[in-house]
Write a structure and sequence with these properties.
- The complex is a heterodimer of chains A (308) and B (551).
- Chain A has 308 residues and is an all-alpha fold.
- In chain A, 75% of the residues lie in helices and 0% in strands.
- The longest helix of chain A has 37 residues.
- Chain A is flat and about 85 Å long.
- With 551 residues, chain B is of the alpha+beta class.
- The longest helix of chain B has 21 residues.
- In chain B, 30% of the residues lie in helices and 19% in strands.
- In chain B, the strands form six sheets. In chain B, strands 11, 12, 13, 14, 17 and 18 form a six-stranded antiparallel sheet that branches. In chain B, strands 1-10-9-8 form a four-stranded mixed sheet, with helices on one face.
- Classes of the chains: A mainly alpha (308), B alpha+beta (551).
Chain lengths: 308, 551
């Protein structure tokens, strides 16, 4: 196991270098001068453009630019945005919010999704099953910007129960609604995944054995059936958490949450290569680590899986 | 029974979510603390595009803050936008009309206690103009003597050739006489010069700026009615009232928090639910059918913008050489319908090349050419020998231009029977680049906002030969000489009259087609009794007033 983890960690290095290079070259390769739009309809004086070009090393060949960037990165310097703000400051401000939001969304989708899945699987066909199926279908069909917007208008403007937007240093309470909206889509998937897996395992031999040897129904369901049914669900939750940690551009935008998703989105729009490369590199690492964590969790859940 | 228990936690967690979220709800009332740091007045804002230094910032978000933080020699009244002396006690012109003697008011201090002297102005201006400093606002100083020595012109614009090295570090036209007096010598007389220097680029800078520029950008220090309190990048910026401010335009509210919003939609909803006090933009969804006017009622703010939208023509393309063709295009466009149907009346059809609310301006220079006359348009097109091939109209797709550009295209197509293609350019940056390099494939939309409240700002920079924002390549000797004559005029009134005459020449040549002027639109909450938008589309922070307490 130790060797396996070490090997996986070592794999991160080429992936890191590869992704940073690809992202770096792609962002700066967008046609057009990234500074041309900074000065409004008057246009930028050539001296301004020249100074900015020099500051971001854009006058040098791409490999040189990249090495210079990487050198700075290894010293912990993520660079500066066009308006003179340290990218590391922006990440520091945005990441805690994103982690909070992702965790809330994850809790919602896992708790409600798995609960709904178990409920329908155990009850079998009937009203509850149909209700959950219809509800999940609805959640999957409605795009987040619609559900977010509707909830915002109804709860925020018409009923005045919540603030339509989230403050600059949001509390868990403020993030509950956005987190619910963000998690709603995956919640539907998890409910359906759990339900299917539980249905399949319900008829498995080992469940019959467990029931036959006189275990309580509660023990059969929670220890034998659920544990085995959760393997595909854990995979889903793991990758989904990785994706959530990358920020939620739409939800963040609707509720004005200053998280990592909006940061990348704006930076791409502004062609701010430094910010995009820095943040996306970080996201790639987070995603890879999440995947590693999921793989390790497999071994814990399923004794048949062994690494090494 | 066991199954039933599963429902309870779900329901409980959901209701807990709603309750907890409800705690943060904004009350919207006015209390003792409203407008102080404890409960500041909040205004919608966006991250400025460049650092917060007046010499290097040109966008509206930066302008909102810098205008409140700095006071130059002259300022524009937020209501009327008339220029008036601010830090200048007097600005006197010499007999040769080229030299101005500026006397400063005494006793003014920067927010860090440093006194504002003539040196602060002269140093700041020289710093901005000096090419190696690469400041955005450099070109604002190009009328001052010695500018060409500190900022030599690039022989090929943005091209590969490097401009020659500057031969001086300071403009010879600026001279400090004593602590509170300095002189400005211009290259050529410019009758309305004192009116033009209310722009933020002409602000003084304190000693600390030159000592530590990075620290300054993080914590700017000005001499204006508001001082910098704190900033969380990408989230908010807080300003507090500067107690020792000497000027007329002192603020009323003690603390103002500018909150960054990514979507104007969210800000609009926050305003409606009392979570935000002022917005400077109305989302497209609320503009439809004038819904925002109904929803905001008395709280809606609108006024005419000091700007204009035009359809610029690529005069570098041989297809667009004939003024008759350009006039045919202009007469094919139905401005009134566009204003009515697409903007719901929140715009005015252009009758000339400047915004009709510009002080001292008389609209009408465009005359019959700006009226919708399909028959005459067809005649003109025939006289011009028709138009070969497809006409491609460009606009930047990151602004709300698609709808009205489609309408313009429809007009041209229907009236003149020309095939029209649309070319949406993804970002303004790329779009600006194409204008700069004269690569536009056909007519393109262009928007211009006045830098100072004088008609000159709509003429010289845009249509003067080789002027800083003349992207169409228009060059007219008559127009240039009329402008020069106006610059030399003895009085500002006389100069205005001559500028208007110069504008008439544009009516002859139609280098760009004037279309319309949008309204500046915003809204305020009930916590404010007064909120003003400047005609340059920025919230006037000094004009905000907290309403009387409700309880």
């Amino acid at each position: 196991m130790g060797r396996y983890i070490l090997r996986r960690l070592l794999q991160l290095i080429p992936v890191f270098i590869g992704t940073t290079f690809i992202i770096y070259s792609l962002v700066w390769a967008i046609p057009g001068n990234p500074f041309a739009g900074l000065c409004g309809p008057r246009g930028c004086p050539p001296s301004f453009v020249e100074q900015m070009t020099e500051q971001y090393n854009l006058d040098k060949p791409l490999p040189v630019q990249y090495v210079l960037y990487l050198g700075q990165l290894f010293q912990g310097n993520f660079g500066e945005t066009f308006n003179g703000i340290e990218v590391s400051t922006l990440i520091q401000n945005a990441y805690p919010v994103t982690i909070k939001l992702a965790t809330i969304a994850l809790v919602f989708e896992a708790v409600i999704g798995i609960a709904a899945g178990i409920l329908t699987a155990l009850r079998g066909k009937g009203f509850v099953d149909n209700l959950v199926l219809a509800a999940t279908l609805f959640l999957i069909a409605v795009p987040v910007f619609v559900s977010g917007f509707v909830i915002q208008v109804v709860l925020g403007v018409q009923l005045d129960w919540i603030n339509p937007s989230v403050g600059s240093d949001p509390t868990i309470g403020e993030l509950l609604i956005p987190g619910f909206v963000l998690g709603s889509l995956s919640m539907a998937y998890i409910a359906r995944l759990t339900r299917t897996a539980m249905f399949e395992n319900k008829r498995a031999d080992y469940i019959r054995t467990a029931t036959a040897k006189g275990l309580t129904p509660r023990r059969v369901v929670s220890v034998h059936m659920l544990r085995n049914s959760l393997i595909p669900v854990i995979t889903f939750i793991g990758t989904d958490f990785g994706a959530l940690m990358g920020g939620a551009i739409v939800t963040e935008g609707v509720f004005n949450i200053h998280g990592i998703g909006g940061l990348v989105y704006q930076a791409i729009n502004k062609q701010e290569g430094v910010t995009v490369t820095g943040v996306v590199t970080l996201l790639v690492l987070v995603y890879l680590l999440m995947n590693l964590l999921v793989d390790i969790l497999y071994a814990a859940l399923d004794p048949r899986i062994r690494y090494d | 029974m066991r199954k039933r228990r599963m429902v309870a936690p779900v329901a409980a967690s959901l209701s807990a979510a709603l309750l907890a979220a409800g705690c943060g709800g904004g009350g919207g009332g006015v209390t003792e603390a409203t407008g102080t740091l404890e409960d500041p007045i909040t205004v919608k804002w966006g991250e400025p595009q460049t650092e917060l230094v007046p010499t290097n910032s040109n966008d509206t978000n930066g302008g909102t803050v810098l205008n409140a933080m700095f006071t130059g020699l002259v300022e524009y009244d937020p209501e009327t936008y008339e220029p008036r002396n601010a830090m200048a006690k007097s600005i006197e012109r010499s007999d040769d009309k080229k030299t101005y003697t500026v006397k400063l008011k005494e006793g003014w201090k920067f927010h860090n206690g440093e006194e504002v002297t003539a040196d602060n102005f002269v140093r700041a201006w020289n710093y901005t103009a000096y090419a190696p400093n690469g400041q955005q606002q450099a070109s604002f100083f190009d009328r001052i003597e010695g500018y060409d020595e500190v900022h030599p012109a690039d022989p090929d614009g943005d091209g590969p050739q490097k401009p020659p090295e500057p031969t001086a570090e300071k403009m010879s036209g600026l001279e400090v006489v004593d602590d509170h007096t300095f002189t400005i010598t211009l290259k050529e007389p410019f009758a309305i010069f004192p009116e033009t220097i209310g722009y933020e680029a002409f602000s003084p800078l304190p000693e600390t700026f030159f000592e530590d520029k990075e620290g300054f950008a993080e914590h700017p220090i000005g001499n204006g009615p508001y001082e910098f309190e704190s900033r969380t990048p990408n989230e908010s910026l807080t300003l507090t009232r500067y107690e020792d401010y000497q000027g007329a335009d002192a603020g009323n509210v003690d603390a103002i928090k500018l909150v960054v919003y990514e979507k104007s939609q969210t800000a609009y909803q926050d305003l409606q639910s009392g979570n935000l006090d002022m917005i400077d933009e109305i989302p497209t969804s609320a503009l439809a059918g004038g819904r925002w006017k109904e929803e905001l009622g008395d709280q809606a703010i609108s006024r005419e913008r000091l700007g204009i939208t035009t359809l610029a023509l690529p005069l570098y393309d041989e297809k667009f050489q004939d003024p008759k063709l350009r006039k045919a295009l202009s007469m094919a466009i139905d401005r009134e319908s566009i204003v009515k149907e697409i903007f719901n009346g929140a715009a005015t059809a252009a009758e000339g090349w400047a915004a009709s609310s510009t002080p001292g301006y008389e609209p009408g220079a465009c005359g019959e050419w700006c009226t919708h006359d399909p028959a005459r348009a067809k005649e003109l097109l025939e006289e011009a020998g028709g138009f070969d091939g497809t006409m491609t109209l460009s606009y930047n797709a990151d602004g709300a231009h698609k709808q009205w550009m489609e309408a313009v295209a429809g007009n041209i197509r229907n009236v003149l029977d020309i095939e029209v293609d649309m070319n949406p350019v993804p970002t303004f940056g790329t779009y600006q680049d194409k204008m700069d390099n004269q690569e536009m494939p056909g007519p393109y939309r262009y928007g211009w906002v006045a830098d100072y409240p004088n008609v000159e700002t709509f003429l010289k920079p845009l249509y003067g030969t080789d002027a800083s924002a003349n992207y169409t390549g228009y060059s007219s000797e008559k127009f240039d000489s009329k402008l020069a004559e106006a610059d030399q005029a003895a009085t500002e009134d006389k100069a205005n009259e001559l500028y208007l005459q110069a504008e008439k020449q544009l009516g002859q040549d139609m280098p760009v087609i004037p279309l319309f002027t949008n309204m500046v639109k915003g809204g305020k909450s009930e916590r404010l009794s007064e909120a003003v938008m400047t005609p340059r589309n920025t919230p006037a922070l000094t004009a905000l007033k907290v309403a009387e307490q409700t309880q």
